[in-house]
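Single Protein Entry

Contents — chain, fold
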Amino acid sequence: MRGDPRDAAVWRNRPEHPLLPSAIRADAVNRLVQPAAPGTADADGLVAEAIALRRAGQRQASAERFEQALAREPGHAGALTSYAMLLLEAGDAQSAARLAERALEVHPARMSAHHVLGRAKCQAGDLAAGIASLRRAVALRPDAFEVEFDLGKALFDTLALEDAEMHLARARELAPRSAEVHIALGNLYRRQL
């Protein structure tokens, strides 16, 4: 995986990890920041770079890689979905929804696109459409903690408390140590009193 040499400072200046000898870490950093030769990265490679940059907190560089990937392959469902998630995290729910919808045109059974679309619609205030998308995501992958949790939260927001409780309880089964789920269930139980 290759990235922008300007992003190397982020990796080089992070605190030492006690389990990683500095020589191993330095080698990993050097491999990460070796720029790809111009025009040689395919869409999958650019998406992988974009995801790595997003995880490293380099959102602008990540967005640029997603755009490059989409310029090479406009229907790349992974690029569309991951870029939508990046935009959603940045607070641009409408653009995120448009990209997720494009991903679903290409790959209608893509659970992650339904999930991002549902979250984007909820964030934009269209809870009914958001819940419908989240329900489709749960139907495609019932063992996905994040989807169950997000659906439970959206249902709670609409005061569909019994349905919310069912999905939050399922999320708790999938991730029993998640503090978020326990807090959400506690809020739900308080609301029911």
